[in-house]
Amino acid sequence: MILKRKSMRPQRQRAGSGQSDDAGNWDDTLLEAGASLLASRWSRVLVTLAAALLFTSAMTVHLALSKQWVFAILCMGAALALSRMRGRVLTVSLVALSVFISLRYLYWRVTQTLSFTNSLDRTFGYLLLLAEGYAVLMLLCSYFQTLWPLHRRPAPLPADTSDWPTVDVYIPTYNEPLDVVRQSVLAATLLDWPADKLRVYLLDDGRRDEFRAFCEQAGVDYLTRPDNTHAKAGNLNAALPKTSGEFIAVFDCDHVTTRSFLQVCMGWFLKDPKMAMVQTPHVFYSPDPFERNLETYRKVPNEGDLFYGVLQNGNDLWNAAFFCGSCAVLRRSALEDVGGVATESVTEDALTALKMSMKGYNTGYLAIPQAAGLATESLGRHIGQRIRWARGMAEIFRQFNPLLISGLTIAQRLCYLSAMMHFFFGLPRIVFLITPMAFLFFGAHVFHASALMVLAYVVPHLVISSISASRIQGRFRHSYWSEVYETVLAWYVILPALQAVLRPGSRGFNVTSKGGVIRQSFLDWAMARPYIVLLIINLAGFAVGVAGLIRSPGWPEAMSILFNLVWVTYNVMNLSAAAGVAAESKQLRLTPRVQIELPAAVRLADGSRVMCQTSDYSQGGLGLVLPENAPLPQRGERVVVSVFRDDYEGKFPAEVQVCRGRTVGVSFPALTIDQERDLMRVTFSRADSWVGSWGRYRPDRPLRSLFEVLGVGMRGLKELGRHLLMGGRERFARSAEAQASELGSKQS
């Protein structure tokens, strides 16, 4: 394995990896030393057996309380020391320590803490053990996927463009508004690819005349079909026999591609004849409900950043990169060989990639953002999308269990298993949220061990796994935020996932709506109700625990109460944050703005020209920052705005909408289709539109992240109280109005 990984190092990309050249040389030295030591097959066997024996012996040894605490402190100190040193081998060492400590904790749980004496203890105790086992399993899978990411680089294309293949661009749509779809279509027409080798197709399952007319204006092909069988997968499959390109690029209708997309992706298909699919990241230029309602946009990595920033790079090492339904290119012959886009699951993209892997094709991932789209606007839509993903992955797990099907390597089986098992997180998360109440309300003992002994095993497990995860994922996932996301989604994804395992295909496909506004702030009571119920239960448990401490119990019982109170406090923090996500913030912009500084100019009504720069742009307008002492236009004044990209100047008739200090906001009320395309060329379609901002978060620090999540929880409690108070006032006002109306009726 060491020799294999070393041979792959020329393909790895050090830029942005956080490792210095010295760290890389240190890694190379250690790898070369290890390779020479393990050159003999028998040497490798003996070393492996010896390591396994030592690992198992150390993992299973039982220590007295004081010795276990000393051991735990030494291990946590070693983890902290390793986390402060650079080098891939040191990262592997840190992860190995985390695996050892977590498995040691699980072994201790199974062998030392299950001496239950009644059915209540037994029920909650085994539920908790299963939840912990699931958590450790997912931790091990995530380490396997992310420990050694590939960081694939683009492969060069031939200098002669006549050798480039033909490409069809598919943009499927169903019920999305034309304003959302049109910029995606126009951006696709700007792709830097020979015109005679590129065709753009809008696949309209809504069969709308206005879309057909727009395609005629934009110079793209319009395809439809008489029904909507198999939803998006069926829409894509219906286009296959009507088109002929050697490769197919797929974009969701809200994803706007940069001009460089094909030149970044296509080289790998020419380099590797077995390459069936190349995926790029999904990034969003609007905040999702978590980011908007918790005010973390561009501050804390969002839910998808971990997958596209870390997991896909790790999957790529094992030839198990997933197709994600958009921002990807597929080889037509490979797609046809697996029977087209899969229709057996509502997550047709992941299943299509799985089928390609089963057939022996290669898949690749390039962590270079080349398109961006709209995030879901409301929590309800966001949860609906995740429900579909959970149901689809559970369907795949039942019908195409990666442990049982043929054609996959062991590594591919583990990568797919991890992805499928992830969506069962709802049940363990709910178990973690309710288990401490079993002790606080009913006196159930889920651990048959002292609180200090439990802490001696669980604290190093949690601390070291947190340090290791932060080391690997810190650029794309901050500590403790996963629990917030899982708490919000747990109640909603678990039932569809279980239903899909028991009754696959029993529900239809739902399209995730994009675009729209939220005209006033409100608390989504329908979405928040489960969190509020669980929050009330945990707060009641906290009150019962405090009352128990006031009664001055003995030392062992007091420690057990304190242990569960800390657990409940963490639950309250996450549940309060979940309630905060359900407090929808006002969003009046129909077209989100992207912050960027570009050279620009304004020609005023009097003919004068002012050089300036943009502050932001959107589909329908620009923000401009004018220099000091420059004349300012008046609101409603017609101007001509120029935006520059290298030597290209795009000119657009505009109308001034707002002037604030030196910042001027303009809109484009009457652009021709060619002017819309030019505006796209100098804004959304720039090759560097998304690369510079993706993953540019401050480094993760677990303790700081913990306090951030605590702050979010406090804010969520405040929002919940405010909306409850407002709701009470509204109900009182309605009641008073009804009484006054009734009194007036009686008097009349």
Automatic annotation (TrEMBL):
Residues 1-12 have a biased composition (Basic residues). GO terms for cellular component: plasma membrane. Its cofactor is Mg(2+). CDD domains: CESA_CelA_like. Its main location: membrane. Its EC number is 2.4.1.12. It holds the Pfam family PilZ. GO terms for biological process: cellulose biosynthetic process; UDP-alpha-D-glucose metabolic process. Keywords: c-di-GMP, Cell inner membrane, Cell membrane, Cellulose biosynthesis, Glycosyltransferase, Membrane, Transferase, Transmembrane, Transmembrane helix. Residues 1-23 are annotated as: Disordered. InterPro entries: Cell_synth_A (IPR003919), Cellulose_synth (IPR005150), Glyco_trans_2-like (IPR001173), Glycosyltr_2/OpgH_subfam (IPR050321), Nucleotide-diphossugar_trans (IPR029044), PilZ_domain (IPR009875). Pathway: Glycan metabolism; bacterial cellulose biosynthesis. The chain crosses the membrane at residues 42-59, 65-82, 89-108, 123-144, 437-463, 484-502, 531-550, 562-583. Signal peptide: none annotated. Residues 169-338 form the Glycosyltransferase 2-like domain. It catalyses: [(1->4)-beta-D-glucosyl](n) + UDP-alpha-D-glucose = [(1->4)-beta-D-glucosyl](n+1) + UDP + H(+). It comes from the Bacteria. GO terms for molecular function: cellulose synthase (UDP-forming) activity; cyclic-di-GMP binding. Residues 587-684 form the PilZ domain. It is an enzyme of class 2 (transferase). PANTHER family: CELLULOSE SYNTHASE CATALYTIC SUBUNIT A [UDP-FORMING]. Catalytic subunit of cellulose synthase. It polymerizes uridine 5'-diphosphate glucose to cellulose. This is Cellulose synthase catalytic subunit [UDP-forming]. It comes from Paraburkholderia acidiphila. The gene is bcsA.
